């Protein structure tokens, strides 16, 4: 990103920054990375000069032939970093931008930024004349690139977000496709022939009962997913704030917000365990909860007025749509 900021127009940096925020693009490597959400490592073994003279340059496979990366985004660029530690005297190899008629010598820690939609290719490292290439003589290239499926809000990228219980291999992953992640996706909500609470709960439950159950289930799901993050993050959920972000309209036409989730065991009221990091994510689904009354919008506004002298921030974020 630092190399790009040195040369790219300010308006371009602002545009890609806004796009990364809008599409919730994973910022890989650095939190400032807002152009290349995908990375790969390319390894190329060194070849002998004799082989080059007899058979031409080899060892790069299809990457050494002039090509374009047609699945890259036209609104971003590829950034390559040479990380080689070749023996002394070896030719590092070169990277060619064929359409521009130029090349770069791939010395260690050399950085290139270019559009993968331009025709490009490379040559492998070459051992000195008369010397057989060492077995560990490899060039290592870190390629950070921008798939249009991840850059575009209308892309087709599927996020393997987390694991699901009781499943094996890829079937056990929670996959977030564009139906979920893209605000530009025109598809209607999915339906199923199987009975489920989201579609059918309204038939057998009161509105407030269904909404409370469904949102609390979302809290349980979030607790399960966050539990898969590294413990070094110390991830926690403020269950009261989480629940208060959801609202619905009851039969009386009034909008209601969900109040705190309290549990009652043996006559003792226990605060939601999410507030205790030692039990977070474990006890939330297992407690027995009572029928806590819902807070009305009016009550919520009164509470906000009381807290306005110390906390001027709004209780909920505005709808971006």
TrEMBL record:
Residues 293-321 are annotated as: Disordered. Residues 307-321 have a biased composition (Polar residues). This is Unplaced genomic scaffold K443scaffold_690, whole genome shotgun sequence.
